[in-house]
UniProtKB/TrEMBL annotation:
This is Ribosomal protein eL8/eL30/eS12/Gadd45 domain-containing protein. InterPro entries: Ribosomal_eL30-like_sf, Ribosomal_eL8/eL30/eS12/Gad45. Pfam families: Ribosomal_L7Ae. Residues 6-94 form the Ribosomal protein eL8/eL30/eS12/Gadd45 domain. It comes from Staphylococcus argensis. It comes from the Bacteria.
Length: 101
């Protein structure tokens, strides 16, 4: 279960316009070096998780497996989301420290 401060912080990042969702959008922005953190849902398929992990490793971007697709969607005020990309360095570093606690 996703804890509330992280959920609220993801919502704040979304309202600030610093969140990208969708596999193709995130992969495209990874190539352009615009994504600073990728979050993949715990219930994502093995292929999706492997693809995102490999891309993040090759571009040296941190990746965390966190929250279910329903929880990620709810945090962003959207439908279910499997992949979430954070485009702001400040939001990314704060989320990393919150998730890794």
């Amino acid at each position: 279960m996703m804890n509330e401060p992280i959920q609220q912080f993801l919502g704040l990042a979304m309202r600030a316009g610093q969140v990208k969702t969708g596999e193709s959008v995130i992969l495209n922005d990874l190539k352009k070096n615009k994504i600073k953190l990728v979050i993949v849902a715990t219930d994502a398929s093995k292929n999706t998780t492997k693809l995102m992990r490999n891309k993040c490793d090759s571009y040296h971007i941190p990746l965390r497996i966190f929250g279910t697709r329903a929880e990620l969607g709810q945090a962003l005020g959207k439908a279910e989301r499997v992949n979430v990309g954070i485009t702001d360095k400040g939001f990314a570093s704060k989320l990393l420290s919150m998730i890794d606690e």
